[in-house]
Protein backbone atom coordinates (compact mmCIF):
# COMPACT_ATOMS: atom_id res chain seq x y z
CA UNK A 1 0.00 0.00 0.00
CA UNK A 2 1.15 3.55 -0.75
CA UNK A 3 2.64 4.95 2.46
CA UNK A 4 3.31 8.50 1.30
CA UNK A 5 -0.22 9.46 0.33
CA UNK A 6 -2.38 7.63 2.85
CA UNK A 7 -3.85 9.89 5.53
CA UNK A 8 -4.90 8.88 9.03
CA UNK A 9 -8.50 9.03 7.90
CA UNK A 10 -9.78 9.30 4.35
CA UNK A 11 -12.78 11.63 4.02
CA UNK A 12 -15.88 10.56 2.17
CA UNK A 13 -15.71 12.19 -1.27
CA UNK A 14 -19.13 12.29 -2.92
CA UNK A 15 -19.14 11.25 -6.57
CA UNK A 16 -21.06 13.29 -9.13
CA UNK A 17 -22.31 9.93 -10.47
CA UNK A 18 -24.16 7.29 -8.44
CA UNK A 19 -22.66 3.83 -7.97
CA UNK A 20 -25.33 2.43 -10.29
CA UNK A 21 -24.41 4.93 -13.01
CA UNK A 22 -20.73 4.04 -12.57
CA UNK A 23 -21.54 0.34 -12.78
CA UNK A 24 -23.47 0.75 -16.02
CA UNK A 25 -20.76 2.96 -17.52
CA UNK A 26 -17.91 0.57 -16.71
CA UNK A 27 -19.77 -2.52 -17.92
CA UNK A 28 -20.58 -0.79 -21.24
CA UNK A 29 -17.09 0.79 -21.39
CA UNK A 30 -18.80 3.99 -22.51
CA UNK A 31 -16.05 6.37 -23.62
CA UNK A 32 -18.21 9.39 -22.70
CA UNK A 33 -17.53 8.64 -19.02
CA UNK A 34 -13.76 8.18 -19.41
CA UNK A 35 -11.99 10.23 -16.72
CA UNK A 36 -15.16 11.21 -14.87
CA UNK A 37 -14.57 8.43 -12.33
CA UNK A 38 -12.10 5.62 -11.67
CA UNK A 39 -12.65 1.97 -10.73
CA UNK A 40 -10.64 0.43 -7.90
CA UNK A 41 -10.50 -3.37 -7.64
CA UNK A 42 -10.17 -4.53 -4.04
CA UNK A 43 -8.77 -7.97 -4.90
CA UNK A 44 -5.88 -6.65 -7.01
CA UNK A 45 -5.15 -3.29 -5.38
CA UNK A 46 -5.29 -1.61 -8.81
CA UNK A 47 -7.41 1.27 -10.09
CA UNK A 48 -8.53 1.62 -13.72
CA UNK A 49 -10.31 3.84 -16.20
CA UNK A 50 -13.97 3.09 -16.89
CA UNK A 51 -13.01 1.87 -20.39
CA UNK A 52 -10.31 -0.60 -19.23
CA UNK A 53 -10.26 -3.58 -21.67
CA UNK A 54 -9.51 -6.07 -18.90
CA UNK A 55 -12.21 -8.49 -17.78
CA UNK A 56 -14.78 -6.62 -15.71
CA UNK A 57 -14.50 -7.48 -11.99
CA UNK A 58 -17.47 -8.42 -9.83
CA UNK A 59 -19.34 -5.47 -8.41
CA UNK A 60 -18.68 -6.60 -4.81
CA UNK A 61 -14.92 -6.25 -5.48
CA UNK A 62 -15.19 -2.71 -6.84
CA UNK A 63 -15.28 0.79 -5.40
CA UNK A 64 -15.47 4.07 -7.28
CA UNK A 65 -13.46 7.30 -6.98
CA UNK A 66 -13.88 10.70 -8.62
CA UNK A 67 -10.16 11.14 -9.32
CA UNK A 68 -6.95 9.18 -9.72
CA UNK A 69 -5.40 11.03 -6.79
CA UNK A 70 -8.17 9.95 -4.41
CA UNK A 71 -7.89 6.34 -5.62
CA UNK A 72 -4.15 6.43 -4.98
CA UNK A 73 -4.76 8.00 -1.59
CA UNK A 74 -6.85 4.94 -0.72
CA UNK A 75 -3.83 2.74 -1.48
CA UNK A 76 -4.48 1.62 -5.08
CA UNK A 77 -1.88 1.47 -7.89
CA UNK A 78 -2.60 2.57 -11.49
CA UNK A 79 -3.37 -0.09 -14.10
CA UNK A 80 -0.57 -0.55 -16.62
CA UNK A 81 -3.03 -1.71 -19.27
CA UNK A 82 -5.60 1.10 -19.45
CA UNK A 83 -3.20 3.72 -18.03
CA UNK A 84 -5.27 6.16 -15.94
CA UNK A 85 -2.64 8.81 -16.64
CA UNK A 86 -4.00 8.96 -20.23
CA UNK A 87 -7.65 9.55 -19.31
CA UNK A 88 -9.23 12.91 -20.17
CA UNK A 89 -8.97 15.32 -17.26
CA UNK A 90 -12.01 15.87 -15.12
CA UNK A 91 -13.79 19.22 -15.53
CA UNK A 92 -12.74 22.15 -13.36
CA UNK A 93 -13.00 21.43 -9.64
CA UNK A 94 -16.66 21.40 -8.70
CA UNK A 95 -16.27 22.08 -5.00
CA UNK A 96 -17.66 25.25 -3.49
CA UNK A 97 -14.30 26.44 -2.13
CA UNK A 98 -12.84 28.83 -4.70
CA UNK A 99 -9.55 29.04 -2.78
CA UNK A 100 -9.07 25.29 -3.09
CA UNK A 101 -9.95 25.53 -6.79
CA UNK A 102 -7.25 28.16 -7.30
CA UNK A 103 -4.72 26.17 -5.27
CA UNK A 104 -5.30 22.99 -7.30
CA UNK A 105 -5.00 24.93 -10.55
CA UNK A 106 -1.73 26.58 -9.45
CA UNK A 107 -0.25 23.30 -8.19
CA UNK A 108 -1.22 21.55 -11.43
CA UNK A 109 0.65 24.34 -13.23
CA UNK A 110 3.77 23.60 -11.15
CA UNK A 111 3.50 26.15 -8.33
CA UNK A 112 5.08 23.88 -5.71
CA UNK A 113 7.93 23.13 -8.11
CA UNK A 114 8.72 26.85 -8.17
CA UNK A 115 8.00 27.98 -4.61
CA UNK A 116 7.43 26.77 -1.07
CA UNK A 117 4.06 25.87 0.40
CA UNK A 118 4.19 29.02 2.54
CA UNK A 119 4.79 31.17 -0.56
CA UNK A 120 1.89 29.52 -2.37
CA UNK A 121 -0.38 30.11 0.63
CA UNK A 122 0.67 33.78 0.73
CA UNK A 123 -0.14 34.06 -2.98
CA UNK A 124 -3.62 32.70 -2.19
CA UNK A 125 -4.04 35.09 0.75
CA UNK A 126 -4.27 32.35 3.40
CA UNK A 127 -1.96 30.62 5.87
CA UNK A 128 -0.13 27.43 4.91
CA UNK A 129 -1.89 25.71 7.84
CA UNK A 130 -5.31 26.60 6.39
CA UNK A 131 -4.19 25.44 2.94
CA UNK A 132 -3.18 22.05 4.34
CA UNK A 133 -6.52 21.82 6.14
CA UNK A 134 -8.44 22.48 2.90
CA UNK A 135 -6.62 19.69 1.08
CA UNK A 136 -7.04 17.30 4.00
CA UNK A 137 -10.78 17.96 4.23
CA UNK A 138 -11.50 17.67 0.51
CA UNK A 139 -8.88 15.23 -0.79
CA UNK A 140 -7.50 13.55 2.30
CA UNK A 141 -3.84 14.40 1.58
CA UNK A 142 -1.44 17.31 1.80
CA UNK A 143 -0.80 19.82 -1.00
CA UNK A 144 2.75 18.48 -1.37
CA UNK A 145 1.58 14.87 -1.66
CA UNK A 146 -1.00 15.95 -4.24
CA UNK A 147 1.72 17.73 -6.24
CA UNK A 148 4.06 14.73 -6.12
CA UNK A 149 1.36 12.38 -7.35
CA UNK A 150 0.44 14.65 -10.26
CA UNK A 151 4.14 14.97 -11.17
CA UNK A 152 4.59 11.21 -11.14
CA UNK A 153 1.41 10.56 -13.13
CA UNK A 154 2.72 12.94 -15.77
CA UNK A 155 6.11 11.19 -15.73
CA UNK A 156 4.37 7.84 -16.15
CA UNK A 157 2.59 9.12 -19.26
CA UNK A 158 5.90 10.32 -20.71
CA UNK A 159 7.49 6.93 -19.98
CA UNK A 160 4.72 5.24 -21.95
CA UNK A 161 4.28 7.73 -24.79
CA UNK A 162 7.74 9.14 -25.55
CA UNK A 163 11.35 8.12 -26.04
CA UNK A 164 12.67 10.76 -23.63
CA UNK A 165 15.38 9.41 -21.33
CA UNK A 166 14.79 9.13 -17.58
CA UNK A 167 16.76 12.29 -16.78
CA UNK A 168 14.74 14.34 -19.28
CA UNK A 169 11.47 12.93 -17.93
CA UNK A 170 12.49 13.82 -14.38
CA UNK A 171 13.20 17.38 -15.52
CA UNK A 172 9.95 17.64 -17.49
CA UNK A 173 8.00 16.37 -14.46
CA UNK A 174 9.37 19.05 -12.15
CA UNK A 175 12.10 17.13 -10.31
CA UNK A 176 15.56 18.69 -10.12
CA UNK A 177 17.11 15.41 -8.93
CA UNK A 178 16.94 12.06 -10.71
CA UNK A 179 17.39 10.23 -7.41
CA UNK A 180 14.49 12.12 -5.85
CA UNK A 181 12.37 11.35 -8.91
CA UNK A 182 13.16 7.62 -8.74
CA UNK A 183 12.43 7.46 -5.00
CA UNK A 184 9.10 9.32 -5.26
CA UNK A 185 7.97 7.30 -8.30
CA UNK A 186 8.73 3.96 -6.66
CA UNK A 187 6.97 4.92 -3.43
CA UNK A 188 3.81 5.89 -5.29
CA UNK A 189 3.62 3.10 -7.88
CA UNK A 190 5.73 0.27 -6.39
CA UNK A 191 7.60 0.27 -9.71
CA UNK A 192 10.70 2.09 -10.87
CA UNK A 193 10.60 4.35 -13.93
CA UNK A 194 12.82 1.86 -15.73
CA UNK A 195 10.34 -0.97 -15.09
CA UNK A 196 7.48 1.13 -16.50
CA UNK A 197 9.58 2.04 -19.54
CA UNK A 198 10.20 -1.65 -20.31
CA UNK A 199 6.42 -2.17 -20.58
CA UNK A 200 5.92 0.87 -22.80
CA UNK A 201 5.38 0.66 -26.54
CA UNK A 202 8.12 2.42 -28.45
CA UNK A 203 6.89 5.45 -30.35
CA UNK A 204 8.41 4.97 -33.79
CA UNK A 205 6.73 7.99 -35.36
CA UNK A 206 8.57 10.66 -33.37
CA UNK A 207 11.48 12.53 -34.89
CA UNK A 208 14.55 12.92 -32.72
CA UNK A 209 13.76 16.52 -31.75
CA UNK A 210 10.01 15.93 -31.29
CA UNK A 211 7.88 14.78 -28.40
CA UNK A 212 4.76 12.97 -29.60
CA UNK A 213 2.03 12.41 -27.03
CA UNK A 214 -1.59 11.27 -27.17
CA UNK A 215 -4.30 13.42 -25.55
CA UNK A 216 -7.76 11.92 -25.19
CA UNK A 217 -11.21 13.47 -24.83
CA UNK A 218 -14.81 12.43 -24.17
CA UNK A 219 -16.99 12.49 -27.32
CA UNK A 220 -18.91 14.03 -28.94
CA UNK A 221 -16.30 16.50 -30.16
CA UNK A 222 -17.24 18.96 -32.91
CA UNK A 223 -13.84 19.28 -34.57
CA UNK A 224 -15.36 20.85 -37.71
CA UNK A 225 -16.61 23.90 -35.82
CA UNK A 226 -13.41 24.31 -33.78
CA UNK A 227 -11.23 23.97 -36.89
CA UNK A 228 -13.31 26.56 -38.78
CA UNK A 229 -13.21 28.97 -35.84
CA UNK A 230 -9.41 28.79 -35.69
CA UNK A 231 -9.06 28.91 -39.51
CA UNK A 232 -11.08 32.15 -39.73
CA UNK A 233 -8.69 33.88 -37.29
CA UNK A 234 -5.38 32.18 -38.10
CA UNK A 235 -2.16 34.24 -38.09
CA UNK A 236 0.27 32.92 -40.69
CA UNK A 237 3.58 31.80 -39.18
CA UNK A 238 2.14 31.87 -35.66
CA UNK A 239 -0.51 29.23 -36.40
CA UNK A 240 -1.28 26.59 -39.00
CA UNK A 241 -4.44 24.63 -39.62
CA UNK A 242 -5.90 22.10 -42.07
CA UNK A 243 -8.89 19.76 -42.11
CA UNK A 244 -7.35 17.39 -39.55
CA UNK A 245 -4.93 19.46 -37.48
CA UNK A 246 -4.19 22.72 -35.70
CA UNK A 247 -0.82 23.97 -34.50
CA UNK A 248 0.97 27.07 -33.30
CA UNK A 249 4.13 28.47 -31.72
CA UNK A 250 4.53 29.71 -28.15
CA UNK A 251 7.15 31.34 -25.95
CA UNK A 252 7.84 31.97 -22.27
CA UNK A 253 10.21 34.50 -20.76
CA UNK A 254 12.07 34.69 -17.45
CA UNK A 255 9.00 36.15 -15.73
CA UNK A 256 7.24 32.84 -16.44
CA UNK A 257 10.33 30.82 -15.51
CA UNK A 258 10.94 28.37 -12.70
CA UNK A 259 12.82 29.27 -9.56
CA UNK A 260 15.68 27.02 -8.56
CA UNK A 261 14.74 24.40 -5.98
CA UNK A 262 16.68 22.81 -3.18
CA UNK A 263 17.31 19.11 -3.52
CA UNK A 264 19.82 16.31 -3.23
CA UNK A 265 21.14 13.70 -5.61
CA UNK A 266 22.07 14.12 -9.25
CA UNK A 267 21.50 17.68 -10.38
CA UNK A 268 19.81 18.45 -13.68
CA UNK A 269 21.28 21.35 -15.59
CA UNK A 270 19.59 23.63 -18.08
CA UNK A 271 20.62 26.61 -20.17
CA UNK A 272 19.43 30.17 -19.57
CA UNK A 273 18.32 32.34 -22.51
CA UNK A 274 16.55 35.73 -22.72
CA UNK A 275 13.42 33.74 -23.57
CA UNK A 276 13.39 30.81 -21.19
CA UNK A 277 11.47 28.63 -23.61
CA UNK A 278 10.19 28.69 -27.18
CA UNK A 279 8.41 25.90 -28.98
CA UNK A 280 5.55 24.78 -31.16
CA UNK A 281 2.95 22.04 -31.35
CA UNK A 282 0.71 20.44 -33.96
CA UNK A 283 -2.36 18.50 -32.82
CA UNK A 284 -3.71 15.88 -35.26
CA UNK A 285 -7.32 14.81 -34.71
CA UNK A 286 -8.01 11.04 -34.70
CA UNK A 287 -11.80 10.91 -34.24
CA UNK A 288 -12.13 7.12 -34.39
CA UNK A 289 -9.99 6.88 -31.23
CA UNK A 290 -11.32 10.05 -29.54
CA UNK A 291 -7.79 11.42 -29.26
CA UNK A 292 -5.38 14.00 -30.64
CA UNK A 293 -1.84 12.95 -31.49
CA UNK A 294 0.25 15.98 -30.55
CA UNK A 295 3.76 16.63 -31.84
CA UNK A 296 5.68 19.10 -29.65
CA UNK A 297 9.02 20.84 -30.11
CA UNK A 298 10.32 22.54 -26.98
CA UNK A 299 13.57 24.27 -26.06
CA UNK A 300 13.21 23.62 -22.31
CA UNK A 301 11.64 20.42 -20.98
CA UNK A 302 10.80 22.06 -17.66
CA UNK A 303 7.83 23.64 -19.44
CA UNK A 304 6.48 20.43 -20.98
CA UNK A 305 3.76 19.76 -18.40
CA UNK A 306 2.59 23.36 -18.57
CA UNK A 307 2.55 23.24 -22.37
CA UNK A 308 0.52 20.02 -22.48
CA UNK A 309 -1.97 21.36 -19.95
CA UNK A 310 -2.41 24.49 -22.05
CA UNK A 311 -2.91 22.46 -25.23
CA UNK A 312 -5.66 20.53 -23.43
CA UNK A 313 -7.24 23.83 -22.37
CA UNK A 314 -7.05 25.42 -25.85
CA UNK A 315 -8.64 22.36 -27.47
CA UNK A 316 -11.07 22.01 -24.52
CA UNK A 317 -10.36 18.31 -24.15
CA UNK A 318 -11.60 17.93 -20.57
CA UNK A 319 -15.20 19.12 -21.00
CA UNK A 320 -18.00 16.83 -19.82
CA UNK A 321 -20.00 17.67 -22.91
CA UNK A 322 -23.07 15.54 -22.09
CA UNK A 323 -23.57 17.37 -18.80
CA UNK A 324 -22.97 20.74 -20.48
CA UNK A 325 -25.49 20.02 -23.23
CA UNK A 326 -28.13 19.00 -20.70
CA UNK A 327 -27.86 22.56 -19.32
CA UNK A 328 -28.03 24.07 -22.81
CA UNK A 329 -31.22 22.14 -23.55
CA UNK A 330 -32.71 23.44 -20.32
CA UNK A 331 -31.77 27.03 -21.21
CA UNK A 332 -33.09 26.70 -24.77
CA UNK A 333 -36.18 24.76 -23.68
CA UNK A 334 -35.56 22.06 -26.29
CA UNK A 335 -35.02 18.33 -26.41
CA UNK A 336 -32.66 18.42 -29.39
CA UNK A 337 -29.76 20.82 -30.07
CA UNK A 338 -29.13 22.07 -33.60
CA UNK A 339 -25.41 21.46 -33.13
CA UNK A 340 -23.64 19.14 -30.69
CA UNK A 341 -20.14 18.69 -29.30
CA UNK A 342 -19.07 22.34 -29.28
CA UNK A 343 -15.78 23.10 -27.54
CA UNK A 344 -14.38 26.44 -26.37
CA UNK A 345 -11.61 27.48 -28.81
CA UNK A 346 -8.92 28.70 -26.43
CA UNK A 347 -6.20 31.29 -27.07
CA UNK A 348 -2.71 30.37 -25.82
CA UNK A 349 -2.61 33.07 -23.11
CA UNK A 350 -4.97 35.64 -21.59
CA UNK A 351 -2.54 38.35 -22.73
CA UNK A 352 -2.81 37.25 -26.36
CA UNK A 353 -6.61 36.97 -26.01
CA UNK A 354 -6.73 40.51 -24.63
CA UNK A 355 -4.60 41.95 -27.44
CA UNK A 356 -6.70 40.16 -30.06
CA UNK A 357 -9.87 41.55 -28.49
CA UNK A 358 -8.55 45.13 -28.35
CA UNK A 359 -7.36 44.98 -31.95
CA UNK A 360 -10.74 43.55 -32.92
CA UNK A 361 -12.80 46.45 -31.60
CA UNK A 362 -15.09 47.97 -34.28
CA UNK A 363 -13.61 46.05 -37.22
CA UNK A 364 -14.36 42.82 -39.11
CA UNK A 365 -12.75 39.50 -38.25
CA UNK A 366 -10.52 39.81 -41.34
CA UNK A 367 -9.45 43.36 -40.45
CA UNK A 368 -8.67 42.27 -36.88
CA UNK A 369 -6.69 39.34 -38.25
CA UNK A 370 -4.63 41.74 -40.39
CA UNK A 371 -3.86 43.94 -37.39
CA UNK A 372 -2.80 40.97 -35.24
CA UNK A 373 -0.61 39.73 -38.12
CA UNK A 374 1.26 43.07 -38.15
CA UNK A 375 1.81 43.04 -34.38
CA UNK A 376 3.10 39.45 -34.50
CA UNK A 377 5.26 40.22 -37.54
CA UNK A 378 7.21 42.85 -35.58
CA UNK A 379 8.42 40.41 -32.91
CA UNK A 380 12.25 40.38 -33.14
CA UNK A 381 12.53 36.70 -32.18
CA UNK A 382 10.66 35.61 -35.32
CA UNK A 383 12.44 33.38 -37.81
CA UNK A 384 11.93 32.98 -41.55
CA UNK A 385 9.45 30.17 -40.97
CA UNK A 386 7.95 30.81 -37.54
CA UNK A 387 6.49 33.80 -35.72
CA UNK A 388 5.85 34.21 -31.99
CA UNK A 389 3.25 36.31 -30.22
CA UNK A 390 5.00 39.20 -28.44
CA UNK A 391 5.28 39.22 -24.67
CA UNK A 392 3.87 42.14 -22.64
CA UNK A 393 7.21 43.89 -22.06
CA UNK A 394 7.83 43.99 -25.82
CA UNK A 395 4.74 46.12 -26.46
CA UNK A 396 5.04 48.72 -23.68
CA UNK A 397 7.26 51.06 -25.67
CA UNK A 398 5.94 50.22 -29.13
CA UNK A 399 4.55 53.25 -31.02
CA UNK A 400 2.55 50.94 -33.33
CA UNK A 401 3.26 53.23 -36.30
CA UNK A 402 2.60 50.24 -38.54
CA UNK A 403 -1.02 49.97 -37.35
CA UNK A 404 -3.80 52.03 -38.97
CA UNK A 405 -6.01 52.54 -35.94
CA UNK A 406 -6.95 55.34 -33.50
CA UNK A 407 -4.18 56.58 -31.21
CA UNK A 408 -6.34 55.93 -28.14
CA UNK A 409 -6.55 52.25 -29.02
CA UNK A 410 -2.78 52.08 -29.40
CA UNK A 411 -2.49 53.61 -25.93
CA UNK A 412 -4.94 50.98 -24.61
CA UNK A 413 -2.61 48.25 -25.90
CA UNK A 414 0.38 49.86 -24.13
CA UNK A 415 -1.55 50.27 -20.87
CA UNK A 416 -2.80 46.69 -21.05
CA UNK A 417 0.73 45.38 -21.77
CA UNK A 418 2.14 47.40 -18.86
CA UNK A 419 -0.51 45.97 -16.53
CA UNK A 420 0.15 42.41 -17.78
CA UNK A 421 3.89 42.64 -17.06
CA UNK A 422 3.49 42.05 -13.34
CA UNK A 423 -0.19 41.38 -12.66
CA UNK A 424 -2.43 38.37 -13.36
CA UNK A 425 -5.16 38.88 -15.93
CA UNK A 426 -8.00 37.29 -13.96
CA UNK A 427 -9.13 40.44 -12.11
CA UNK A 428 -12.04 41.74 -14.19
CA UNK A 429 -12.53 44.93 -12.13
CA UNK A 430 -8.87 45.91 -12.50
CA UNK A 431 -8.98 45.29 -16.24
CA UNK A 432 -12.10 47.43 -16.64
CA UNK A 433 -10.20 50.31 -15.02
CA UNK A 434 -7.81 50.39 -18.00
CA UNK A 435 -8.82 53.11 -20.46
CA UNK A 436 -10.31 51.62 -23.62
CA UNK A 437 -11.25 48.25 -22.14
CA UNK A 438 -14.94 47.53 -21.66
CA UNK A 439 -17.03 44.58 -20.51
CA UNK A 440 -17.03 42.78 -23.87
CA UNK A 441 -13.21 42.83 -24.09
CA UNK A 442 -12.85 41.49 -20.55
CA UNK A 443 -15.46 38.78 -21.10
CA UNK A 444 -13.88 37.74 -24.40
CA UNK A 445 -10.47 37.57 -22.70
CA UNK A 446 -11.90 35.42 -19.93
CA UNK A 447 -13.81 33.12 -22.26
CA UNK A 448 -10.95 32.42 -24.70
CA UNK A 449 -7.78 33.29 -22.74
CA UNK A 450 -8.79 31.75 -19.40
CA UNK A 451 -11.40 29.29 -20.74
CA UNK A 452 -13.95 30.58 -18.24
CA UNK A 453 -16.95 28.30 -18.94
CA UNK A 454 -19.59 30.72 -17.64
CA UNK A 455 -19.43 33.79 -19.92
CA UNK A 456 -22.63 34.84 -21.67
CA UNK A 457 -21.83 37.75 -24.02
CA UNK A 458 -25.18 39.47 -23.66
CA UNK A 459 -23.97 42.67 -25.39
CA UNK A 460 -22.40 40.82 -28.32
CA UNK A 461 -23.75 41.66 -31.79
CA UNK A 462 -24.02 38.01 -32.84
CA UNK A 463 -25.79 37.13 -29.61
CA UNK A 464 -28.22 40.03 -30.03
CA UNK A 465 -29.14 38.75 -33.49
CA UNK A 466 -29.67 35.24 -32.14
CA UNK A 467 -31.81 36.46 -29.23
CA UNK A 468 -34.32 37.99 -31.63
CA UNK A 469 -35.15 34.44 -32.77
CA UNK A 470 -35.56 33.03 -29.27
CA UNK A 471 -38.94 32.44 -27.64
CA UNK A 472 -40.03 33.55 -24.18
CA UNK A 473 -38.96 30.26 -22.61
CA UNK A 474 -35.29 31.01 -23.31
CA UNK A 475 -33.37 31.34 -20.03
CA UNK A 476 -29.59 31.86 -20.31
CA UNK A 477 -29.11 31.59 -16.56
CA UNK A 478 -30.35 28.00 -16.74
CA UNK A 479 -27.15 27.15 -18.65
CA UNK A 480 -24.92 28.20 -15.72
CA UNK A 481 -22.14 27.40 -15.02
CA UNK A 482 -21.66 26.61 -18.73
CA UNK A 483 -22.92 29.81 -20.36
CA UNK A 484 -19.80 30.17 -22.53
CA UNK A 485 -21.02 27.12 -24.43
CA UNK A 486 -24.40 28.80 -24.83
CA UNK A 487 -22.57 31.79 -26.35
CA UNK A 488 -20.81 29.47 -28.79
CA UNK A 489 -24.07 27.71 -29.59
CA UNK A 490 -25.87 30.95 -30.42
CA UNK A 491 -22.90 32.07 -32.53
CA UNK A 492 -22.82 28.85 -34.51
CA UNK A 493 -26.35 27.44 -34.84
CA UNK A 494 -28.75 28.62 -37.51
CA UNK A 495 -31.85 28.80 -35.32
CA UNK A 496 -34.21 28.99 -38.29
CA UNK A 497 -33.07 25.89 -40.16
CA UNK A 498 -31.30 24.01 -37.33
CA UNK A 499 -28.18 23.64 -39.48
CA UNK A 500 -24.57 24.58 -38.91
CA UNK A 501 -23.21 27.39 -41.08
CA UNK A 502 -19.58 28.09 -41.92
CA UNK A 503 -17.94 30.50 -39.45
CA UNK A 504 -18.34 33.95 -41.00
CA UNK A 505 -16.57 37.30 -40.90
CA UNK A 506 -19.18 39.45 -39.17
CA UNK A 507 -18.37 42.84 -37.70
CA UNK A 508 -16.75 43.05 -34.28
CA UNK A 509 -17.32 46.00 -31.99
CA UNK A 510 -16.62 46.56 -28.31
CA UNK A 511 -20.16 45.30 -27.72
CA UNK A 512 -20.39 42.89 -30.61
CA UNK A 513 -18.45 40.02 -32.10
CA UNK A 514 -19.01 36.78 -33.95
Automatic annotation (TrEMBL):
Coiled coil: none annotated. It comes from the Bacteria. Keywords: Activator, DNA damage, DNA repair, Methyltransferase, Transcription, Transcription regulation, Transferase. SUPFAM superfamilies: Ada DNA repair protein, N-terminal domain (N-Ada 10) (SSF57884), DNA-glycosylase (SSF48150), Homeodomain-like (SSF46689), TATA-box binding protein-like (SSF55945). InterPro entries: Ada-like_dom_sf, Ada_DNA_repair_Zn-bd, AlkA_N, AlkA_N_sf, Alkylbase_DNA_Glycosylase/TA, DNA_glycosylase, Homeodomain-like_sf, HTH_AraC. This is Transcriptional regulator. GO terms for molecular function: alkylated DNA binding; DNA-3-methyladenine glycosylase activity; DNA-7-methylguanine glycosylase activity; DNA-binding transcription factor activity; methyltransferase activity; sequence-specific DNA binding; zinc ion binding. One of its GO terms (biological process) is methylation. Its cofactor is Zn(2+). Residues 101-199 form the HTH araC/xylS-type domain. The keyword Transcription regulation applies. One of its GO terms (cellular component) is protein-DNA complex. It comes from Photobacterium indicum.
